[in-house]
Amino acid sequence: MTDSPTTRGFPDVEYAARTKLAQDRMAEAGMDGMLLMSEPEVQYFTGFQTLFWQSPTRPWFVLVPANGKPIAIIPEIGVSLMRQCWLDDIRSWSAPNPQDDGISLLIEALSPLKTVGVMKGHETHLRMPLGDWERLMTALPALRIRDATGLVHGLRMVKSPAEIDKLSRICAIGSATFDAVPQFAREGVPLEEVFRAFRREALAQGADGAPYVVGASAPGGYADVISPPDATPLATGDILMLDSGMVLDGYYCDFDRNWAIGHADTTAQRAYDVLWRATDAGLAAARPGNSCRDLFQAMSSVIAEMDDSGGDIGRLGHGLGLQLTEQPSHAAFDTTELQENMVLTLEPSLSYGAGLMMVHEENIVVTPQGGRLLSTRAAPDLPVI
Amino acid sequence: MTDSPTTRGFPDVEYAARTKLAQDRMAEAGMDGMLLMSEPEVQYFTGFQTLFWQSPTRPWFVLVPANGKPIAIIPEIGVSLMRQCWLDDIRSWSAPNPQDDGISLLIEALSPLKTVGVMKGHETHLRMPLGDWERLMTALPALRIRDATGLVHGLRMVKSPAEIDKLSRICAIGSATFDAVPQFAREGVPLEEVFRAFRREALAQGADGAPYVVGASAPGGYADVISPPDATPLATGDILMLDSGMVLDGYYCDFDRNWAIGHADTTAQRAYDVLWRATDAGLAAARPGNSCRDLFQAMSSVIAEMDDSGGDIGRLGHGLGLQLTEQPSHAAFDTTELQENMVLTLEPSLSYGAGLMMVHEENIVVTPQGGRLLSTRAAPDLPVI
Question: Which fold has domain B12-156?
Fold first, then answer.
């Protein structure tokens, strides 16, 4: 358990550097503004951090201008908190207001602009009512909208040393939490109680929370990897998997662990071994110059020893940071070139037996020497509890 | 601490009834289908429950046809879990796929339809890429899109007895958690440690999680109600507020509590008393026949004893269920008529002193006799720790 207080946020210079780099790329892309509205982007450019995003009621907007600091256009309820961030220009309205939930403020802010970037590509959502978006476009018929997805994700993929420090700390907390699992997961304990104990342990280890805990425990292996728990007790012969996104000061770890309850059967042991070696291959391939596709293929070629179906998960890992899953994707379709200081998950998976699957996951940072582990690596053999 | 396993989900008849009611209203509204894509709606009509929604990578779709069971159009990773739900028709693709993330499946499913409802109104988001939405609309030029927000929110606002049972259980867990706060919140404890202890207690009391914990502790009162914690220790003279959304089997409680650390000053005591009596007024007004506006005015008229500014929060409570905040809103703009079995928060707030505020919150169910408390009501006087 940690008693040391957490140093929260970043100095203003971090946000200023992010904004300047975005503005350089906006200039290259011919954008004179960028309108952002999703939690990770608002946090990335302003430092504004609140769990209040869980309430869908109010929209939040940040406009990154061609020069100078971002402008916040936000509900009154957030003004006090936003004032603690590095921004100077904070515009607000009393929200919720079904007649005008920030739209007239947006029209005013966007009217002088010609070409505005909005995130409308893969892995994005429109975090405002579609009807309000249509109203906004109708009110600004001359405004050109460009897709800013690649620009923003391109910036966010490569982490600063300060971000890597935060990610390293939450990964260490995650590792310590997984190490404690044999203390509370054993035959006879209902899976939902294992989940609760796991979350309590994550908090005791210093996480702000463990918002993402999924997994399963079933005879010989599990059939899916996104389930909530039920009350079924762990039983001898089960394979237990827990996958968790824990968070510290806004940054996530995301990795999993597998255990056998009582004893491990040979097939599960073999699947575990294949995935362990696929992770080895991923670690070796995770260096600048290789692409996500290369990383995918390095892991796939090992997985193919046991399963050449490609699996149900669609990829073998992804980016990690302010979100549990970020771009890029380790998949055949993703040719993103790996860069030093990208933080990634390696997530090899395979199917076996009658509809069973196994997934391994580690968190790494890309270095010229290959992937440097941020998570403490899983045991080389399937651990038995 | 509870050791009794949780009965999860609902019998199929619950989902069938929701779907039938939706289809009756769709027929009245001239819709021959409804396309849903956000977590609460997918869960409401299918029972599909996973924390995997925290990953923004993959879109998920449910089509409610004019007759028969909903149709799931979802990533392969969710098929195994969706098969456990009551649906028969599950269509899937290997996601993520930036070239076609479900769009061709959507086109196929929507092509036979003339008028489709989509949630595009207040308090909604488009949980798919805007670019993909535009592609879909271009591919289906004859399709008419109607706003289904009112239809879906209208159904979800009024809870079934089974839903009220779940809400009642998570509210009881929340109440027990707040009761334990004086055991770990005292002078000298950093606020972030109070938050962690609070979350651990919520889990010990039987919550699946406490995803929403916000609050503050500051001399004489707090300035905002959506902050994350920092490492500042609680100090004599602080007002501590914790507001929490805890969840059990997908259903949320959402209420807060206030305490004075060491001693309570007179102004804070008075603010607390005014809000306690505003809650009384809200409880009396929370019966069928009154509107949300009536409920708002009943509370406002008491709050005006100390503050007639209207506050920064924009409303004095809201709906509660599968989301931390749902429609309706207790605000002057919301004329929604209260109906028996609506589950609501009463959330009177006021501003005082130099930029300070106080918020009370309780959770209730609307009955002909007025609001029936689901949360154990806060103490009538500001408690001192």
Answer: Creatine Amidinohydrolase; Chain A, domain 1 (3.40.350)
